[in-house]
Amino acid sequence: MKILASDFDNTLYFHTGFKAEDLQAIKTFQAAGHKFGVCTGRSYNGIVAPSTNVDIHYDFYICLSGGLILDEDGEVLFEKQFPYAIVKEIYARYPVNVSVVYGNAMYLLNDKNNHFKQSIKALYKKMKNQPKENIRFIDQLDDLKAQQIPSFSFHYRRGEHNQAVNLATYINKTYGDYVNAYVNDIHIDVCAKGCSKGHALKQIGDYYHINKEDLCGIGDNFNDLPLLQAAYDSFTFDYAPIAVQKQANHIVPQLSDAIDELLF
């Protein structure tokens, strides 16, 4: 039995939804006795909502960059949190668009010009009638009465990848005793120390008693590097950054092609 952990955005799920070929390939993979699940920076709700009314079954969920792991029924297998005060400290120095996962919702901090809210609304308009995750806007970080959280993200604008890299470096250097920060193009996903997509894949392998030779992963961006490095068979795409392609064993056009290689 093999395990395939798949990134979500721009790997399995796109602004236009899921690809029919990928959904069929996943069903074929599972019918052959293998396990398929997601491995993402998104929250659990951020996976369940867009997957509603879609013919897909997840055998496991790796969410929040490994900070939350659930079984196929949504029962928590692992969760780790860190002080919410860290978000406030970093934002005071770097007032970048920020989102915070807490409870069953994602909270987005309004910026002065409402650019962040407008960009989210524009994105949702592109997604038309697809189910969306539970998002709430707050006017200041103190509006969220949290002590511990499992994840937060910073969001730069298009073309500001280098700024994202610099901020992630600062977070890892200054707050490395508490959190790990991973760059996802112009976004930075932050989870509790010791958590990563790669470590979570190994945890899922232990849960299913799978040999490391049967751990597989696929992703499209820099935050997927821990997943690709932990997987025995790793896949990325011809549209992924060159640095990501260099870390994968296989380059494929889409997810269904990776599954075909694993099966045949």
TrEMBL record:
<dbReference type="GO" id="GO:0000287">
    <property type="term" value="F:magnesium ion binding"/>
</dbReference>
<dbReference type="Pfam" id="PF08282">
    <property type="entry name" value="Hydrolase_3"/>
</dbReference>
<dbReference type="GO" id="GO:0005829">
    <property type="term" value="C:cytosol"/>
</dbReference>
<dbReference type="InterPro" id="IPR036412">
    <property type="entry name" value="HAD-like_sf"/>
</dbReference>
<dbReference type="GO" id="GO:0016791">
    <property type="term" value="F:phosphatase activity"/>
</dbReference>
<dbReference type="InterPro" id="IPR023214">
    <property type="entry name" value="HAD_sf"/>
</dbReference>
<dbReference type="InterPro" id="IPR006379">
    <property type="entry name" value="HAD-SF_hydro_IIB"/>
</dbReference>
<protein>
    <submittedName>
        <fullName>Haloacid dehalogenase</fullName>
    </submittedName>
</protein>
